[in-house]
Amino acid sequence: MAKIDYKGFIEKYFTITTISGEIVPMKLNNIQSYYYDLLLRDYGSTLSPIRENILKSRRFGFSSLIDAMFCVDFILGEIGLTNQANASVYSFRQKDTEELFKRVNQFINSYLLATIEKDYRNPADREIIPELRSSFLNKDVGGTIIEGKNGSVYDCLTAGAKVAGRGGTRQNIHWSEVAFYNNTETLNARELVIGAEKQVSDGIGKIFRETTGNIADNFFAEEYQAGKDGVSQFKSRFLAWYLFDEYKSQPPENWSMPEYYNQIPKITKEQAYWHFTKTNGLSSKLEMREFPTTDTEAFLLGGDPYFNNDALVRYNATIKKPIREAEYVTAL
Q1: Within a 13 Å sphere around the CA of 130, how many CA atoms are in the beta-carbon half?
Q2: What pLDDT digit, counting tens, does each position of 211-242 carry?
Q3: What is d(CA 270, CA 289) in angstroms, rounded to the nearest whole number?
Q4: pLDDT by residue (tens digit) across 180-192?
């Protein structure tokens, strides 16, 4: 399988719209670059096959990175430089699905304009996008499905149908905020995810399960622990809030850093103060879950356990696994 410089391709061809509405070239931020380097380290230059359970803090931009990588595969497959790579991206809610699909379209449109030395940021250049798409894409198959001239498919779906993703084949699947998928009569998270992932053959493609934490006894928590224990084909990673360079703010001169932050190596006072204010002085259980310091914290703070949350976090951080087997010898 050929080596693909995903980062180089993304930063050369794709644009993205910021939360303030500004259209900018997509340049990987520090945490996206950090994670991308981890993938290269663990999966090699071909970045395939990938199987990832990602537990993270909010607003890292991981959905953007993963979906941009899938878009690179889609484009390269369509222009004949690699094999076809059909992709499905699942989100928690319909409005999120529509936003993901809008972003994928922007990636494709930016690329098409860049190949003829046009700029997506220029409104006049964007007027020719329909013509470019008609020559590159076979059709836009309804709401959130794109089909290329050579047969590649990229769809964005809402995780809400029992039969979603059970037919056909896929090479790439992204589950966004999978820890929040419900377990009801109409949607069973384990049945949906495991069933859809059978579309991706062993030894190929990319499957990302990416989410912030939730409760400690749901599907993703169990899968994350299995990967952490090394009893799953999926690697489990936790990426804490303090890895992101943007999460910092200037504290008042008289602010004293709470003892809580002593567990974080090399943390700065600016980082600690940002987190302290974001979590309402470490008192907001919801915000502590959204911006956890440990993976144990992310899961425990998602629910409403009988025992005190703080005590559970402390004890889970210090307990050790039991010795599985021991041999004792006695002599007279």
Answers
A1: 2
A2: 999 988 899 999 999 999 999 999 999 999 99
A3: 20
A4: 998 776 678 999 9
Examine the pLDDT at 29 and tell me if it is beyond 90. yes
DSSP annotation of 206 reads E
How is residue 258 written in tokens?
């709470």
Distances in Å between the Cα of 93 and the Cα atoms of 9, 61, 161, 229 are 29, 18, 12, 31
CA atoms within 13 A on the CB side of 44: 6
Helix, strand, coil shares, percent, the chain, to 5: 40, 15, 45
Q: Is 256 strand, coil or helix?
A: coil
The residue segments making up the domain with residue 72 are 6-239
Boundary (domain end) residue, out of 239, 260, 288: 239
139-171 burial code (b ≥16 CB/10 A, e <16): eeeeebebbbeeebbbbbbbbbeeebbeeeebb
Indicate the pTM of the whole model: 0.89
User: Distance between CA atoms of 312 and 309, rounded to whole angstroms?
Assistant: 5
Q: Are residues 304 and 156 in the same domain?
A: no
Q: Are residues 229 and 256 in the same domain?
A: no
Return the SS3 of 236: strand
Determine the pLDDT at residue 331: 57
Q: 181 and 251: one domain?
A: no
